Amino acid sequence: MFKKYFVFIALPTMAISAGLAPLAHATVAPHKIISLSPSATEDLFAIGAGTQVIAVDQLSNFPSSAPASKLDAFSPNVEAIAAYKPDLVILNSGATKAESVRSALKKLRIKVYFETAPLDMTGAYKEITELGSLTGKGPQAQTLIRSMKSAVKKAIETGRKKSPISIYHELDDTLYSVTSETFIGRVYRDFNLVNVADAAAKADSYGYPQLTPEYVVQSNPSIIYLSDAQYGTNLASVTARPGWSSLKAVTSNHVVALPEDIPSRWGPRLVDFYQFVSKSIAGIN
Amino acid sequence: MKKTSAGIGQIWNWKITASCALILLAIGTLAISLGPIHLGFFDILKTLIGAHGLEGQDRTVLLDLRLPRALLAALVGAALATSGAVYQTVFRNPLADPYLLGAASGAGLGATIAITNSGGNIYGWLPIFSFVGATLAVMTSFFISGRFFAEPNTLLLSGIAVGSFATAVQTYLQQRHSNALRPVYNWILGELTVANWSIVSWSSIYILSSILVLVTVSKKLDGLLLSDEESFSLGIDPNRLRMIAVAAATLATATAVSASGLIGFVGIVVPHLVRGVTHRVTNRSLATIALVGASFLVLADLGARTILSPAELPIGVITAFVGAPFFLFVLRTRRVSHQ
Fold first, then answer.
1. pTM above the 0.90 mark?
2. Out of A80, A97, A205, closest to residue B177 by CB
């Protein structure tokens, strides 16, 4: 059971980047960076600081030129990190004993950028800004943010619905979902999509409630987004669920498999996610 | 199996205990010598005896990362093995383990409460909450089962009930606060990853004093293996002794759990291992069991941080993966030697 939770709560949390404790500006830009955050890895390469990165954790699979290592972002091994002799480590606050890891690294005189999961785009931009100023790529970071902002704006303008459409975002086949208060939920809201999980917002303080099958059937969403598509859930398996075959989303064939990684990485590829959602709702009224 | 009519005092051989202490020392030295960063063996020894040895980052790696971690592994291993042996005696049940009376689920609930309510600094509160949770759960089991348990089985059953209740509350809280899932999951796996001196120092106080109490009463503990009437006739008050034993074992377990999460199997495998290898059932072996437990966990932790290096492997995986087959082997050879 835990494993399942782990995948959909932990991965986004870990993969996410942003809202961090600002560090003092370095006089010399760090050139031996270790990134233990897939989102931060994407940020660093997008602002042109990729050459300053000496190792990334094993989940940092984008861009492909990132120097992959066996370092683990969930359970960071301080000594293994120190063996690389880094001058900056990007550590996610969701990692195991993150606080202790941070203080152990500080004892070893290694600078740490401590990132926590962002709640919205502002948080994601903030991380890019901070990584930019830390790595001496401030102007490049601003350029990236400007282009992201305009691309996101364009995607919203193209796709945004005049009248609201109801959606259901599925995390796994036990019907865990996301509310509009989560980062991913905010993206849907930007397109004037009404999230059926919002009715259960009070059930979980973090915005990931588990819905009852009856409620999903009753709420009859027009679109179903499957983030568990990578685990084999698809239109056929959704249709086979009792009562689901008559859902609007199913009869109109609007069951959408979400791409892996992109919706859970709050870096430059967020633009791709906005464009994906925009495309997925084109022509639906 | 050798049968002897000698008194209980002569059955246990101090030489075995002393050699186990030496083995622990050797394993400990090995453990702090190995890791992703190469440190010279003689430099390590020099640093340890205070001579001019490692410097800078290497010194920090040895003194602030490896040494406290090995010490904490030893403390936790000793605590779990000793408590396991004592619980097995008290409940006259070879399957009893340190988590039997709800200590594990109580600690789990405490940890979950700490994680869901702390907002920021989870790890400052986590050990305290899990310690309190474990102690409260065991105390509740005690009171539910009536006047300091006339019957060990009643206590055992109430321990199971309290444990299930605590687990239910924990699951409810997790469902309401999904951000707690990952930290709780991690904690349940049992981790020694970032031990530091403050954890080592407070846990050593509780664990060492509990073990001291248990070793002191160990001679009398054998009386609990008999029926209550028989132990009375030996001049032992079984209820009082059981209470002391359970209290000390619980203190040690709660401390171990709050310092390192749930590490399974040590409390069962180590006592049986020592008894199997030495063919002795007596609790006079408690000190040896503590030392073997310490060695076992230091070794397991060495595996945890080197096998998948640079990633970590949860230590519970190793204790069961290595411990279970070894344990079966001991059971088998013991059986053969009985025939």
1. no
2. A205
